[in-house]
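Case study 2.
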Amino acid sequence: MRVVVQRVLQAKVEIDQAEISSIDKGMLLLVGIGMSDTRDIVKKMATKISKIRIFEDDCGKTNLNIHEVNGKILSVSQFTLLADTKKGNRPSFVNAMKPPMSLDLFNYFNECLVNDGNVVERGQFGADMQVSLINDGPMTIVLDL
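Prediction:
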């Protein structure tokens, strides 16, 4: 499982020029689910994200997690994070889990985030989306489990 975590001042998802979800201060998560991922891995990733300290305290140190800043999460499925580009010029996505299993794990991931006390907005799984954000910092971290 690979998740790109971006600290944002705001982020939104649009489909066909219509906004379907948005957040202000918080995290935009781009979520890639791999062929070997399990519910245990997904739960561990959600816990890691809930606790990761990427927000600044009063001294400018990254000591605060999403809860401590009353931030929200925008979670967007992105199978292209699992691209293999080692061979040739065309990415291969054979390492990405296929629907409906990937949809089930993506939904479980978001449920785990909510169960950890997070406010979670979502993109639309499998849709052609336009994702906009204002990255704060910038702060972008890639997490792999």
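The two ends are 5 Å apart (CA to CA).
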